[in-house]
Amino acid sequence: MAIRVLLVDDQPLLRTGFRMILEAEGDIAVVGEAGDGLQAIDQVRALQPDVVLMDIRMPRMDGVEATRQITGPGRDGPAKVLVLTTFDLDEYVVEALRAGASGFLLKDAPAVELVQAIRVVAAGEAMLAPSITRRLLDKYADHLPSGEEPVPDALHTLTEREVEVLKLVARGLSNAEIAADLFVSETTVKTHVGHVLTKLSLRDRVQAAVYAYESGLVRPGAQ
């Protein structure tokens, strides 16, 4: 089954470029396009895409609010949102991740990265590039906890190993990298990640990373 993709961007030329790249792949099908957030919500309901490639700055309704309505509480459809941002990291990206986006991608990323990101998100994983994540969180360091605040009660539900895994997820490590770091199998890591998401009521690894920083468990710049 091909991955069904909806393109959302207010620039028609960009949508055309993305379409040409994606339709060259045998396992991806572009099922529709939208020029703003309101159109995106309507198209998601009508077309039931697997992945929504979502711009942030658009007229009528921006990508953050559209993401919130597409992936928010009570939404059990298949659509996952991959947010597009500019090289200097749009200030709304954090809000998009909080709203339920499964990751973010630079608009000038190579075609191979765009295709891979869509496959990753469609598979239920999160697009969490370590270098971009670190820059993003450093950029917003002043708005994140200092680490001196009380630890949220929810964190006490995690085992010591699950806390270790959460910290490594927040650093942007993949399951394979975490497995190597902790000297365990990749299957064991997947199990730990699943437990963390369930216990903290989080959607995916991206929200887990944001939670780790917002809770003060991890601080920007810390290793």
Structure summary:
The chain is an alpha/beta fold and 223 residues long.
Helix-strand layout with pairing:
Blueprint: E1 3-8, H1 12-23, E2 28-34, H2 37-47, E3 51-54, H3 63-71, E4 80-85, H4 93-99, E5 103-106, H5 111-122, H6 130-139, H7 160-170, H8 175-182, H9 186-199, H10 205-214
Parallel strand pairs: 1-2, 1-3, 3-4, 4-5
Helix pairs in contact: 2-3, 3-4, 7-9, 7-10, 8-9
Keywords: DNA-binding, Phosphoprotein, Transcription, Transcription regulation
GO biological process, one term: phosphorelay signal transduction system
Organism: Streptomyces pratensis (strain ATCC 33331 / IAF-45CD)
Structure overview:
There is one protein chain. This protein has 223 residues and is an alpha/beta fold. It has ten helices and five strands, in the order βαβαβαβαβαααααα. Strands 2-1-3-4-5 form a five-stranded parallel beta sheet, with helices on both faces. Strand 3, helix 3 (63-71) and strand 4 (80-85) form a beta-alpha-beta unit. The model has no long low-confidence stretch (mean pLDDT 82). The modification 4-aspartylphosphate is found at residue 55.
The chain-level structural class is alpha/beta
Distance linking N and C termini: 40 Å
Q: Please list the strands of the largest sheet in the order they lie side by side.
A: 2-1-3-4-5
- So what's the overall shape? globular
Radius of gyration, rounded? Answer: 17 Å
Largest sheet: 5 strands, parallel
Domain HTH luxR-type: 151-216
Domain Response regulatory: 4-122
Pfam family, one: Response_reg
Protein name: Two component transcriptional regulator, LuxR family
